[in-house]
């Protein structure tokens, strides 16, 4: 048998194993509210090829490819346990098992590693929490996709309504079409139907009421059976407590803003300061996409090396705030054609760092250049550290952070030598460290951080909403602190 024959046979075997994993992953998700991950990447509702590609991607960050032959025994062991709602990372199970020298079987080790989610320790499945989207633009539609995707178990968050201004004939049909198809993020994964008479979009069985209103004061959400909901304002029209408080109408308990908050509105970056949200806080912000991209790696670097000062330069994709062709704009330069120019502009991300990392003493400055790509940006984080180090040390440290730390859902790591911006469309991490571009010279480190400023940020928004709603389930094995 030739090498080619061996490779093809091996592929077919792995295909068969991955295919047999799908019903096990699906049953855990639907019946027990367990999300199976592989190095922070969900395997729920993934195809055979997607599962195999996710296993192969582990080579980029762990140095060696994971095989389904390694992870399948752990998945089988999970199905035999009395699991409660949780997230379980097969990649971490395999990694920690290999490092364990006690001679335990896979079943014994797995039962011990996820003990917090079994038996008397397990938490009960919670009733779905109502969510309302105020606005239905780029971020609103991506958050909608994520909420619909995560509703598969019937628990967690449930998108009940979308509030928009009336747009004329066939408004709801056109909005449903924008949810169904996206020029950047592709087709919606599932089915969408529209009931114009009841003003309802049904997506994968989720009935979503479309409410037309020009102002928050026009809506009483209890009229639609909505109770104790979390409202996500993705219009950016109001950013301070007074303005956002207008959303606290009957049926709404909390308001989450998808833009930097002003004044005393808390700016929350999930993974960094989400645990500081007070239970009775009704209004909070998820900061900006760039703040979410730079704060987690900045925290990681400060924790290990100390940061004395820094500057972030963002090379950012253009947004709807800019003009397609030269025209009047209230801001400087943004009136010039976005698809035809690089546009120097400001970023509030650097100043927002202080809200998310109040213990960071370093002064962080920032600026931004908008460039002619529709999605995915890069932040160049130039840091003066409190001690000297080497490129190899920082490289290995950040790779480990992306694998095993509490920030592993926020920070990804890639070693591909030919990676470009479009490769990161659809990334669910807040930022991705480009290992090949990393520069270290003594006490100076320059990090290149890719981020999908639309989808990655939307994932961070949903994580914050899950946390404040009480449906953010624990992850096992627990990340190293």
What's the gist of this structure?
The protein is of the alpha/beta class. It has 12 helices and 19 strands.
Q: What is the name of the CATH class of the largest domain?
A: Alpha Beta
- The CATH superfamily of the largest domain is Dihydrodipicolinate Reductase, domain 2
**Unreliable segments of 5+ consecutive residues:** none
The coarse overall form would be: globular
Radius of gyration: 23 Å
Oligomeric state: single chain
Largest sheet: 8 strands, mixed
Q: Report the CATH topology name of the largest domain.
A: Dihydrodipicolinate Reductase, domain 2
Q: How does the helix and strand content classify structurally?
A: alpha/beta
* Total number of strands: 19
Beta-strand content estimate: 15-25%
The CA-CA distance between the termini, in Å, is 48 Å
Strand order of the largest sheet: 6-7-8-5-4-9-10-11
- Round the mean pLDDT to the nearest integer and report it: 92
Q: At CATH's second level, what is the architecture of the largest domain?
A: 2-Layer Sandwich
Total discrete domains? 3
How helical, in percent, are the residues? 25-40%
């Amino acid at each position: 048998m030739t090498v080619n024959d061996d490779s093809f046979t091996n592929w077919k075997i792995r295909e068969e194993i991955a295919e047999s994993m799908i019903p096990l992953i699906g049953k855990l998700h639907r019946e027990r509210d367990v999300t199976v991950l592989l190095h922070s990447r969900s395997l729920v509702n993934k195809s055979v090829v997607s599962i195999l590609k996710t296993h192969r991607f582990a080579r980029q960050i762990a140095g060696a490819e994971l095989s389904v032959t390694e992870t399948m025994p752990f998945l089988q062991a999970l199905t035999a346990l009395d699991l409660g709602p949780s997230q379980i990372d097969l990649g971490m199970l395999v990694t920690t098992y290999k490092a364990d020298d006690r001679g335990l079987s896979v079943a014994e080790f797995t039962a011990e590693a996820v003990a917090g989610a079994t038996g008397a320790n397990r938490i009960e499945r919670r009733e779905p929490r109502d969510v309302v989207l105020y606005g239905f633009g780029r971020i609103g539609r991506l958050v909608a996709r994520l909420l619909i995707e995560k509703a598969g178990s019937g628990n967690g968050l449930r998108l009940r309504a979308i509030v928009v201004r009336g747009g004329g004939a066939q408004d709801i049909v056109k909005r449903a079409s924008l949810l169904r198809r996206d020029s950047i993020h592709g087709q919606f994964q599932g089915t969408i139907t529209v009931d114009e008479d009841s003003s309802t979009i049904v997506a994968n069985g989720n009935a979503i009421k479309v409410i037309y209103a020009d102002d928050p004061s026009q809506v009483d959400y209890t009229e639609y059976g909505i109770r104790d909901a979390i409202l996500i304002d993705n219009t950016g029209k109001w950013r301070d407590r007074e303005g956002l408080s207008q959303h606290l109408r009957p049926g709404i308990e909390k308001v989450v803003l998808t833009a930097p908050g002003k004044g005393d509105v808390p700016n929350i970056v999930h993974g960094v300061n989400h645990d500081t949200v007070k239970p009775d806080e009704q209004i909070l912000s998820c900061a900006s996409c760039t703040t979410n991209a730079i704060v987690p790696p900045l925290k990681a670097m400060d924790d290990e090396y100390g940061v004395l000062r820094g500057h972030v330069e963002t090379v950012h994709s253009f947004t709807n705030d800019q003009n397609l062709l030269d025209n009047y704009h209230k801001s400087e330069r943004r009136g010039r054609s976005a698809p035809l120019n690089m546009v120097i502009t400001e970023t509030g991300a650097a100043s927002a760092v202080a809200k998310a990392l109040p213990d960071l003493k370093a002064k962080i400055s920032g600026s931004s250049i908008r460039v002619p790509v529709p999605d995915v940006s890069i932040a160049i984080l130039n840091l003066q550290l409190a001690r000297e180090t080497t490129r190899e040390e920082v490289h290995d440290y950040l790779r480990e952070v992306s694998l095993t730390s509490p920030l592993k859902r926020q920070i990804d790591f890639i070693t591909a030598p030919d990676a470009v911006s479009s490769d990161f469309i659809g990334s669910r991490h807040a930022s991705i460290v480009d290992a090949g571009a990393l520069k270290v010279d003594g006490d100076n480190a320059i990090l290149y951080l890719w981020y999908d400023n639309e989808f990655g940020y939307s994932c961070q928004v949903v994580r914050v909403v899950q946390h404040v709603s009480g449906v953010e389930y624990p992850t096992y094995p627990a990340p190293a602190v």
